[in-house]
Design goal:
Elements lengths: L4 E5 L16 H8 L1 H16 L3 E5 L10 H16 L4 E4 L19 E3 L5 E7 L2 E7 L22 E7 L16 H5 L5 E5 L5 E5 L2 E4 L15 E8 L2 E8 L3 E9 L6 H18 L5 E10 L5 H8 L2 H9 L6 E10 H5 L5 H10 L3 H8 L6 H8 L1 H19 L3
Parallel strand pairs: 1-2, 2-3, 3-4, 6-7, 7-8, 8-10, 13-14, 14-15
Antiparallel strand pairs: 1-11, 5-6, 9-10, 11-12
Length: 403
């Protein structure tokens, strides 16, 4: 009897814009747009090469319920490749691509099964082994917990659960199909394929309960290698191996000023660091980089001004503009001395972020401006809150530093 083997992925977010970027060079813009598609195409290629029994996609194929025609055509093409290799796809819709499936019909190739809005168990056989797969699709953006409706494992060889949701004990306030580890483990399933959280994490090894993370980072908050899990059974137990995809990787580089650093020395130091990164991550398609500079409050004023006003960033971007595989999008100045001397109260900072720098609060501050669609869409982006907060902190640091 052959071992069952499948791929678990989630959060493709096709059509999702990259966040926090501006002045993107033309030679990079097209690659950014197609980055998620390229990553998923690589996963499909791996599924065919490994001859997996099926593919699980745990929600958020698209970034919205109304994806572009280009994104839909792309997904159809990739699903057809899997169909030609006789590989089924089982997917559920998440909080981004939610749909009321009672009123909407999704047209996918015959090898694709979309779970309905109610908890449903799909049963099938793989090389004579009985498999049950239980899941559900979001019919609206926010839904309550659904795990109580999942059946216990029965006599089938393998029972898998697929959930796009958040681990939480705050069931009254959690909005995205909340669940607890205790709930999941009580079902006695052999594997839980999770989606929604963009950071890769193994929540449990017995049974395996895994967030694969998204397949392509969309902002500086989503750094690191992205990929999927290849799952197979060894010695009558499912084992999962993480497999990276060669996507576009976000990297933040922390650097500290040295006492004798001049503008040119600093520029050379950053350029050498960029070369080092490319050498150490040769398998990555391309990089989006932010430099985080830590400096004392007595940094030479003219040097500080050239950094804050973007002169350093502009010159660096000009020097590497011919590099199609690297985009330096920001040089962030952080005043380390202020915090070291306790001028900066970290508790007050944390409370300020909690009270002010939250999306809902900033949205209220915008007042009537949000009636304009482009401003409304601007505030919806998760990176905007962070960006406003960072800029406010920079201005406060400058004032407290006495400049």
């Amino acid at each position: 009897m052959m071992a069952v083997k499948f791929i678990h992925t989630a959060d493709l977010h096709l059509d999702s814009p990259f966040e926090g970027l501006k002045s993107i060079p033309d030679n990079f813009a097209k690659r950014l747009y197609s980055a998620s598609m390229t990553a998923f195409a690589e996963i499909v290629e791996a599924a065919i090469k490994r001859q997996v029994d099926f593919v699980l996609i745990a929600g958020d194929l698209y970034d919205s319920p109304h994806p572009s025609v280009a994104a839909q055509l792309f997904l159809q093409k990739e699903f057809l490749k899997l169909q030609q290799s006789e590989i089924p796809v089982y997917l559920c819709l998440g909080n981004h691509d939610f749909l009321n499936l009672e009123n909407t019909t999704l047209v996918y190739p015959e090898n694709v099964y979309v779970f309905p809005n109610q908890v449903t168990t799909k049963r099938f056989f793989v090389d004579g082994q009985s498999v049950s797969l239980t899941s559900f699709s979001y019919g609206k953006q926010w839904i309550e917990g659904q795990i109580d409706g999942f059946p216990l494992k029965g006599s089938e060889r393998w029972h898998l659960g697929m959930v796009h949701g958040e681990i939480s004990t705050d069931y009254k306030n959690a909005k995205y199909a909340p669940f607890s580890l205790t709930q999941l483990k009580s079902k006695n399933y052999d594997y839980w394929a999770l989606g929604h959280i963009h950071k890769r994490e193994v929540l449990s090894s017995t049974p395996l309960i895994i967030y694969p993370g998204n397949i392509q980072g969309k902002s500086i908050k989503e750094t690191g290698v992205k990929g999927y899990y290849f799952v197979t059974d060894k010695d009558n137990k499912l084992v999962a191996d993480f497999c990276p995809v060669a996507g576009i990787q976000w990297i933040e580089i922390p650097l500290e000023f040295e006492e004798n650093d001049t503008f040119e020395k600093l520029k050379n130091k950053i350029e050498n660091k960029l070369v080092e990164i490319k050498q150490n991550f040769s398998s990555v398609q391309a990089f989006i980089v932010r430099i985080s500079l830590k400096a004392s409050s007595d940094l030479e004023p003219s040097l500080k001004e050239r950094i804050i006003k973007g002169v350093l960033l502009g010159q660096l971007q000009n020097d590497i503009q011919s590099d199609d595989n690297l985009f330096l999008y920001d040089v962030l100045l952080k005043n380390a001395q202020i915090q070291q001397n306790n001028f900066w109260d970290k508790e007050v900072e944390s409370k300020a972020k909690e009270l002010v720098f939250q999306r809902d609060n900033l949205y209220k501050l915008a007042d009537n401006l949000v009636k304009y669609r482009f401003i409304d869409e601007h505030f919806i982006q998760s990176s905007i809150t962070e960006s406003i907060g960072n800029k406010a902190m920079t201005y406060l640091e400058e004032e407290m530093g006495g400049d």
